Amino acid sequence: MLTSWREAQSFQTYLGITSADRILAVLPFSFDAGMNQLMTAFQQGGTIVLINFVFAREVVQMLLKERITRPCRSTHAWSFTRAAPFHAAKAAVA
After folding, report:
1. Which domains are delineated in the chain?
2. At 78, is the secondary structure helix, strand, or coil?
3. Does residue 76 surpass a pLDDT of 90?
4. 85, 87, 56: which is closest to 72 by C-alpha?
């Protein structure tokens, strides 16, 4: 799917993303929501944190380590994190 700059603006308006936000890029950029995250971060001057992960706990650890303010809100992206114990990830980062 081709994502336009206008779609990224809509995404930013809907989520209220600002230059202070740190976005975790869990989704591939070939997916429209993933590309919207990237373009919105550029558009607003925010930070996008890239992650290449195998296990769900790595995503949870990165959320904490990088102080992510805007994790992906895709249902698919979070379906795998149910298996990752949050308290274990928090202890690993501390």
Report:
1. 5-93 (3.40.50.980)
2. helix
3. no
4. 56
